[in-house]
User: What shape does this take?
Amino acid sequence: MGSNMMRQAVPLLKPESPLVGTGIESDVALDSGVTIVAKREGVVDKIDGKRIVIKATEETDFSKSGVDIYNLQKFKRSNQNTCINQRPLVRVGDKVKVGDIIADGPSTKLGELALGKTLQ
Assistant: This one.
């Protein structure tokens, strides 16, 4: 999809990844800023409708707390009058590493760009 077409596209509530891709779909999704990425290693302690709580496994800086809280945007309005909804990808007890994608955003599925539905 061209960049001018992408400006006019409306994100779906249940997007699907393409059957054939270019290989940079995960990079595009990460660079768009709609996905949430883990800042530290840890174990998922709690998942709520509004946030994900991760308990850090190793602490290198004692001035920081041992818990990372990631707030999710649920059905918020964007500047283009579309819906922003972030969905958690992790479950309670999962171990996460630095850079792991823990939540999807609009037009992404499992951390990859997904702009439409696959018709079969």
Observations:
- Helices lie at 3-8, 25-32.
- Residues 25-32 form the longest helix (8 residues).
